[in-house]
Amino acid sequence: MRGLLSWIPIIAVTAISAAPPFPAARPRKSLGQHFLVDNRILARIVTAAQLSSDDLVVEIGPGKGALTRRLLPQVAGVVAVEVDDELAQSLAARLDNPAHLSVIQEDARTVDLPRVVGESSYKVVANLPYYAANPIIRRFLEARHRPTEMVVMVQREVAESMTASPGKMSLLSVAVQFYATARMVCSVPPTAFRPPPKVTSAVVRLDLSPRPALDEDEAPAFFRLVRAGFSAPRKQLHNSLGHGLGIGSIPASQMLQVAGLDGTRRAGTLSLGEWLAIYQVWAGTDDC
Ligand code: SAM
User: Fold this and answer.
1) How far, in Å, is the centroid of ligand 1 from the Cα of 138?
2) Domains in the chain, ordered, with CATH?
């Protein structure tokens, strides 16, 4: 177990030898600190992650360690990335200094992933701070070395958008499903947290595809197309694409027709496969 983590440069692992008095610091709202206190939900998250004893888990925002404590006995190593300096520094001692835990005090939105996980295969398990959930998820999905799976707690609306089907798709749905199969695990009421947030939460599991739907160098153009489609989601697709791509609505209609799609549809009704079909046609034109 030690071997797996021994190469990770540990920025802030603090093994405090004397029993530390953990200051009951006020939760920092600005850091989205809503600590999970419902054991049933903690168990659901761990079960959903389907962990095994050789897994390496990256946990974002371990806080006081409620989830970390449940992850540690199941896996070979946990790398916990916590931006709050007090929580980061006290985490290891709170959990009795397990040898297979390393704590990195950094912002997960900008953390240097190769430095954290190296070449090892890894999973992400986290109760994410809501204010930063989207950029954190995006960072892992777009990383060169992606996790194999992510089990994350987010705001319920975000979870619904990530797992949406055609008819309710958004830019976020397409972006997540481009990289992963997304499934809702459970809904979580505010009473499961201290202090309780104002909104309902949900746990989502993302199984990342070993290869995304397109080659990495094509992703920017693909998302330019999808963003154009969602730039005016109430408009018919030939209009939103025509305007968003700056090609005009008639060429956009022709492009959609070649892709086998009705130009009067709205962006939210398209599946990932249909966006890919439009992209293939657009990529073959001079406009792309
Ligand atoms: N995992 C704990 C639990 O379930 O009780 C705490 C979850 S709390 C919703 C979010 C945690 O993420 C907090 O500990 C907070 O300090 C931390 N956090 C906030 N912003 C962060 C960021 N940008 N990078 C890493 N951690 C962050």
Assistant:
1) 16
2) 29-208 (3.40.50.150), 216-283 (1.10.8.100)
